[in-house]
Amino acid sequence: GVEISTTWSGRTLHVVGLDIDPSNAHLRQGLCGIRASRLERAEAIGRRLAAIGIGSALDGAMALASSPETIGRTHFARHLAATGVTADVKTAFRRLLGEGKPGYVRHRWSALADAVGWIRQAGGVAVLAHPVRYGLRPERLRALFEHFRDLGGAAVEVVTASQDEPVACRIASLAGATGLAASAGSDFHDPEQSWLDLGQLAELPAVCVPLWRDWRLPEAAAIA
């Protein structure tokens, strides 16, 4: 699987790709471009933080990232918390790294259409992650669902760590009305940045068509 940050209508969206071929050339090339842009953004964040007297931020974030191309704001937040600049990771985002704060650098990610295309070219299915976190009004959210479907998107996360049961039911209804299947995800990245621990999600609403209803793993296909 893969999660790709994308830009749609001036907003950053996250698209999950499931059952992908990680060796696919189109996907690898697209992700390579994203990684290069992440490094450029990190360097800009480092300069902004240095300008307010936090000079070690870039080096500290680099030390926490698995590679320079995977560095993100979370690595800066973890460094700031570990060195006592902020009390914890959440405070780092709230005071320094969130939108409008001294260390924030707006980033233009890949287009939504490109990300969906890479996932499909790699043999995978595209899922729109945690839709309510984008702050869209109902009519704009419906437009996003319809556009995502028309691009070849397969499903939307109906149950997530940031959507309670009433919201999940509303998203389930909208997914059904726009022809999208339902998926679920905790958005768990690591123990220090966990919206919800693994295995704690609620079940999908009964009206949903689960993405995995017709899922056929290679082993099952071979047996059949």
Helix-strand layout with pairing:
Blueprint lengths: L1 E7 L2 E8 L6 H27 L5 H8 L8 H10 L6 H9 L12 E2 H10 L3 E4 L9 H14 L3 E6 L4 H13 L3 E5 L32 H6 L1
Parallel strand pairs: 1-3, 4-5, 5-6
Antiparallel strand pairs: 1-2, 2-4
Short description:
43% of the residues lie in helices and 14% in strands.
> What is the H/E order?
EEHHHHEHEHEHEH
Cα-atom Rg, whole angstroms? 19 Å
Measured distance between first and last alpha carbons:
25 Å
Overall shape: it is: globular
Number of helices, counting only DSSP H or I runs of 4 residues or more: 8
Low-confidence stretches: 217-224
Share of β-strand residues: 5-15%
Largest sheet: 6 strands, mixed
Name the helicity range: 40-55%
Mean pLDDT across all amino acids = 88
Total strands: the figure is 6
Outline the structure in words.
This protein is of the alpha/beta class. It is built from eight helices and six strands, in the order E-E-H-H-H-H-E-H-E-H-E-H-E-H. The chain has helices at residues 25-51, 57-64, 73-82, 89-97, 112-121, 138-151, 165-177, 218-223; strands at residues 2-8, 11-18, 110-111, 125-128, 155-160, 181-185. Helix 2 packs across helix 3 (73-82) and helix 3 (73-82) crosses helix 4. Residues 217-224 have low confidence and may be disordered.
